[in-house]
């Protein structure tokens, strides 16, 4: 099981926004976005 699935929706979204703000690795941001999309969460950019 991927540990990212254990995150709550709000923590996942917070991690995604912080990763963008901090300009973290693109692959990490894409991993977060894939999980967001899997959960059908709408993200405002």
* Span of the ends, CA to CA: 29 Å
The main sheet comes to:
none
Radius of gyration using CA atoms only: 10 Å
Parts with pLDDT < 50 across at least 5 consecutive residues: none
- Secondary structure category: mainly alpha
As a percent range, the share of strand residues is: under 5%
How confident overall, as mean pLDDT? Answer: 94
Q: Could you tell me the number of beta strands? A: 0
Q: What is the 3D form?
A: globular
> Level of helix content?
55-70%
Order of helices and strands: HH
Question: So how many helices?
Answer: 2
Note the main attributes of this structure.
45 residues; mainly alpha
Write up what this structure looks like.
By secondary structure, the chain is mainly α. Helices cover 58% and strands 0% of the residues. The protein has two helices and no strands. It has helices at 9-21, 26-38. The radius of gyration is 10 Å and the shape is globular. The N and C termini lie far apart (29 Å).
Provide a short characterization of the protein structure.
This protein is mainly α and 45 residues long. 58% of the residues lie in helices and 0% in strands.
Topology of this structure?
Blueprint lengths: L8 H13 L4 H13 L7
Helix pairs in contact: 1-2
């Amino acid at each position: 099981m991927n540990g990212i699935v254990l995150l709550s929706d709000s923590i996942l979204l917070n991690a995604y926004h912080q990763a963008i703000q901090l300009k973290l690795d693109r692959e990490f941001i894409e991993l977060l976005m894939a999980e967001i999309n899997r959960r059908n969460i709408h993200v405002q950019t």
